[in-house]
Amino acid sequence: MAKGTKPFTALEKNILKAKGLTAAQVGKLAKAGVKGRGDFRTVGDAATLASLVPGLSVETAAAVMAWANGAGGGSGGPSTGSGQGGPVVVESAEVVYCVHCKTKQPKDWKSGDLCVNCGKEAEPVQVCFWCNQTGPGKVCRRCGTPFVPAEDVELAAQLKREGVAKDEIGPKLARMGKPDRDALRARAQKYR
Ligand SMILES: [Zn+2]
Ligand SMILES: [Zn+2]
Hints:
This protein is mainly alpha-helical. 38% of the residues lie in helices and 2% in strands.
């Protein structure tokens, strides 16, 4: 198990099943050494994952990897190199899978392009916590702020109110434990 990896929670196991894994395949993942979500960073790509679990299709593996590399996978900004097991950016993070049909986008696909298979926005549309602009991609096109996961936008906006520097907000949220997040959420709700 990779350093700092937490074992799969019941929710994460259910998500894996929702992505198409059988219970037996979830067990085989653990046998292969993939014991927590962080271990998918070591696996790296869908083809490797499929080869670790007998009977797992590449499509299912791709859906799992898209989930594992998605929300919570880090702010996308350059690592500060604190050595605290911060977000690790893997090469496969450059691979984009359509949020609607899970189709892998070609190499010349650019942020903002439509899906080559279904023609919808391949990337989720994000809200910038800093300037409220919406758009696809990893970074706000108006102000250059890296997007945070949708469920963290409210928390990030609260950190902005509290005077945290723009570039600090994503990394700070990524480091926050549940008690700190809950306290922050409670403060944010006063502004609703
Ligand atoms: Zn699509
Ligand atoms: Zn912005």
